[in-house]
Amino acid sequence: MYGGEHVSWLMIVVAVVPPIVIMLLIYAKDRHEREPIGLLLLCALSGALSVLFSLLLEELSMTIISKTLYSAHPNVQYAVLAFLGIAAVEETGKFLALRLTTWKNRHFNYTFDGIVYSVYVSLGFALVENIIYVIGHGMQTGLLRAITAIPGHASFGVYMGFFYGYAKFYEVAGNRSKKTQNLWYGWLSAMLLHGFYDFFALRGTQASMVFFMAFIIAMDVIVIVQVFRSAKNDTPIYRAYRQPPYRMQFQQVYQNPYYAQQMQGTYRAPVYLQQQYGTPPGGAYGSSGGGQGSPYGPQGGGQRSPYGPQGGGQGSPYAPRGRNGNPYAQQGGNPADPYGRPAGGNGNPYAPQGGSPTNPYGQGNPYAGNPGPGNPGGDTGEPWR
Q1: 47 φ, ψ to 5°?
Q2: How far from the centroid of its chain's Cα atoms is residue 4's Cα?
């Protein structure tokens, strides 16, 4: 049998260890750029201090709810108490602590950081709350909360942090509406999960306890999957400076938002767009060159270079020469020579000088030694001497 002092210290250990274990697990998943220990301790401390804010508002809200809904159905009372009196108050306190502590911190540079910060704030809150419950209700309560309330607070924090990280990304991208939406989604998802947790726990019936345990197991499994997925898809927030999220939707080169600048030859795409659309040859945004994947190159052109001011080819309707297939040509051509130079014969659309149907490479054959009407290759009859 433990003495009172020993039991108190054991209670503290039981209350403190589960949150710390989960904190370390989340810290280990942050593989790209782990957060400073001092910042994480500050998050946990701010979450712990938010308990005071929550306790004051919870007492006030419970008093108002009990007086307002004293004649309502018990399920209605439990629902309002769980969602508005407890969950909304506690998650608001955590959210404010999270926002004030981390939003403008320079280390907040990856989307997964939002999950890390939020979980540390939530577990800082849970740690203090756990100590209060364990000291007030005994060891059994501490052991029960180790597998229910502590993972529950961590799960609420994961959902809040997931949206919180993307809210920061959208702010950097300049998309204020998406930023606001994700901040609301983060708070709302945590509040709803917390509300269902408290509703099942407060109801106290055998059926509600079955739903309570099933809810916790399902939520914990989904959260574990989400943590692994978010860690794997961790995205640097600084990329949003170069690639706003709405621009990520432009998968086709003809939807390129910098089209006007490219046509004038004044735009040089950043690296991420060159990677997305290709680099010369094949560079959709290169300042010169062109090629199959370079429809915007100001020079050259190729099969898929319709906008090149020079050159031309099968897919270059804007070349400065030609006419039949080249509506913007400056000089002649004929049906067989829509893109070529001013002359050409029936069988030689690109020769600089004439020819005839029987001698397309005669007079105009730049490679013949001594061309003549019946000797396209010169005296030896070799056409390319």
Answers
A1: -65, -40
A2: 53
Contact indicator for 144, 133 with CB cutoff of 8 Å: no
Q: Give the orientation angle of helix 4-29 with respect to helix 37-68, to 10 degrees.
A: 110
Number of H helices and E strands in the chain, helices first, is 12, 0
- pLDDT per residue as tens digits for the range 257-282: 554 444 445 445 454 444 444 444 43
Burial class (CB in 10 A: 0-12, 13-18, 19+), 164: buried
Distance CA 129, CA 121 (A): 12
Measured between alpha carbons, how far is 11 from 134 in angstroms, rounded to an integer? 6
Beta-bridge partners for 321:
331
CB atoms within 10 A of CB 42: 19
Q: What is the mean pLDDT of the chain?
A: 73
What's the rounded Cα separation, in Å, for the pair 166 and 304?
Answer: 37
The DSSP letter of residue 359 is: B
- The DSSP line for 115-161 is HHHHHHHHHHHHHHHHHHHHHHH-HHHHHHHHHTHHHHHHHHHHHHH
Beta bridge partners of 178: none
**Structural contact between residues 81 and 65, judged by C-beta atoms closer than 8 angstroms:** yes
- pLDDT tens digits, 188-209: 999 999 999 999 999 888 899 9
Query: How many CA atoms, within 13 angstroms, populate the side-chain half-sphere of residue 136?
Result: 6
**Coil vs helix vs strand at 268:** coil
Cis peptide before 338 (omega within 30 of 0): no
Q: What is the DSSP string of 201-218?
A: HHH-SHHHHHHHHHHHHH
Beta strands in 245-317 (DSSP E): none
Q: How far is CA 113 from the centre of its chain?
A: 13
Taking the CB of residue 202, how many other CB atoms lie within 10 A of it? 17
Determine which helix (DSSP H) or strand (DSSP E) holds 79, and give its type and residue range. helix 74-80
pLDDT at 17: 92
Residue reference for tokens 């750029």: 33
Residue labelled with tokens 């910042």: 39
Is residue 134 within 8 A of residue 141, CB to CB? The reply is yes
Binned at pLDDT 50, 70 and 90, residue 180 comes out as very high
